[in-house]
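Following up on my earlier message about GLP. Here are the inputs again, as you asked, copied directly from the submission form:
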Amino acid sequence: MKLIVCDSYDEMSKKAAEIVSDVINENPSAILGLATGSTPEGMYKELVEAYKDGKLDFSKVSTVNLDEYVGIDPSNPQSYQSFMNENLFDRVNINKENTHLPKEIGSLEESVKAYDKLLAEIGQRDLQLLGIGPNGHIAFNEPDEKLNMHTSIIDLKDETIEANSRFFDSKDDVPKQAMSMGMADIFNSKTLLVLASGKNKHKAVEKFMHTDKIETLFPMSFINLHPNCYLIVDKDAYQG
Ligand code: GLP
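Thanks, got it. Here's what our run produced:
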């Protein structure tokens, strides 16, 4: 794992955007695994700027996202679909038909199967972006006795509902479930790019730095298994 400690959130975002840009410039048909949350917002801004400056072309890029809330319409401003539209898809020349997020089609079981089928068809990604939850979750794979290999419906932990309530009017409005890519699919990528920013991630980053164990109760620990992984953190996440 390559650890990069940055002085600031902006530096982390620039560094992450550089890595993503290199992947796209090397392979204009790159397949990217994308993530949502406050952490990658700065990186998406950098990518949009690079596109506007004529340094990036998304016309042949395909994307798959890690997760989506259950019970929220894609047009809802709090959906991850809306997040992706606002932060990237509506701002660059990507073909929206080549962008994918988990979505509800019929029953939840059918929706899960459909996303797994899509991921199997798409195959290995060139890069998978990841954030972490304050409890060390990745995508919505919450600390648990077992973790899922493939797409599944996850009951969100109270701490995750609390952490994500800042995007909603109240904690009660936060969906209680999400559809999330599983661990095996997350790892089916040539490169993993994990970002952590802010003091509320320090506990997880510190635990990660000081453990030599892989624990399902700490999903972030699994990133140690990936042969080509970057962990980019800012000072606040690194030092607390
Ligand atoms: C959510 C998402 C994760 C994301 C995490 C951190 O729970 N499911 O994919 O990594 O939040 O989000 P933030 O960057 O806003 O702290």
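One observation from looking it over: The first helix runs from residue 9 to 26. Hope that helps, and feel free to reply on this thread.
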